[in-house]
TrEMBL record:
The keyword Protein biosynthesis does not apply. This is Pyridoxal phosphate homeostasis protein. SUPFAM superfamilies: PLP-binding barrel. The lineage of its organism: Bacteria, Bacillati, Actinomycetota, Actinomycetes, Micromonosporales. HAMAP family: PLP_homeostasis. CDD domains: PLPDE_III_YBL036c_like. The keyword Transmembrane helix does not apply. Gene3D superfamilies: Alanine racemase (3.20.20.10). Belongs to the pyridoxal phosphate-binding protein YggS/PROSC family. It comes from Plantactinospora endophytica. The modification N6-(pyridoxal phosphate)lysine is found at residue 49. Keywords: Pyridoxal phosphate. Pyridoxal 5'-phosphate (PLP)-binding protein, which is involved in PLP homeostasis.
């Protein structure tokens, strides 16, 4: 009797990712059903930070089209590796971004979720004008916990660099950028619903002046149901899809 061949590590990982993907998709479907929404209106962004390019390629083979990263140092080589492997995905930059990384990010990112200051919007606009053909899609990251050091543009007040309205105006006014909507991370250690309700209000207010800014990026592995209930069009899913990360990011 011959033993069946051991599955190659790649096959095992593919099967694991496929099972995780099926679970996440059924959670999104159930959340949409509960909210009376069409699942086609919710894009799942697979957040692959800390995981290798090979996982992105496997996910692309399973039908995942949108991939997120939060650090340029990791994302730039990974995007190059995935492209070299022949997989086509849309890259979403979801992490805090330093202005001196703008020139790198605009070369591979299709959409930047985390623009939270006029100065960053200006740096991206300048870099995109020099290094891209198509406009860069941008979401204004909204701070939901009132802690100005946690990132995100501020809902209240009229800070010339960091108010949501000023940041949105800077993005909308740049030919090389396209204002696509808003993004937020739920406050740490609190129920996500009030934050997501605030985000929905900010999104609705922004659409009065910017009717094409339709995207609402909210929800991660732990709170995607609440995000869908409050109108998220993009959920950013890391650990539920790829596994727990060994580092806290
Ligand atoms: C890591 C990360 C995610 C994914 O978080 P999970 O809890 O692993 O799903 C989503 N959004 C941002 C901004 C992240 O940095």
């Amino acid at each position: 009797m011959t033993e069946p061949p051991l599955p190659a590590p790649d096959d095992e990982r593919r099967a694991q990712l496929a099972a995780n993907l099926a679970r996440v998709r059924s959670r999104i479907d159930a959340a949409c059903a509960a909210a009376g929404r069409d699942p086609a209106g919710v894009t799942m962004v697979a957040v692959t930070k800390t995981y290798p390019a090979a996982d992105v390629t496997l996910l692309a083979g399973l039908g995942v089209r949108d991939v997120g990263e939060n650090r340029d140092q990791e994302a730039a080589p990974k995007a190059a590796e995935v492209a070299a492997a022949g997989a086509r995905v849309r890259w979403h930059f979801v992490g805090q971004l330093q202005r001196n990384k703008a020139r790198s990010v605009v070369r591979y990112a299709d959409l930047v979720h985390s623009v939270d200051s006029v100065r960053l919007a200006d740096a991206l606009a300048d870099a995109a004008a020099r290094h891209r053909e198509a406009p860069l899609e941008v979401l204004v990251q909204v701070n939901l916990d009132g802690a100005a050091d946690r990132g995100g543009a501020l809902v209240a007040g009229d800070d010339p660099d960091r108010s949501v309205d000023r940041v949105a105006a800077a993005v909308a006014g740049a030919d090389s950028l396209r204002l696509a909507g808003v993004m937020a991370v739920a406050p740490l250690g609190a129920e996500p619903e009030p934050g997501f309700a605030t985000l929905a209000e900010v999104a609705a207010r922004l659409r009065v002046e910017h009717p094409a800014a339709l995207a609402v990026s909210a929800g991660m592995s732990g709170d995607l149901e609440a995000a869908v209930a409050y109108g998220a069009t993009h959920v950013r899913i890391g650990s539920a899809l790829l596994g727990m990360r060994s580092t806290l990011r």
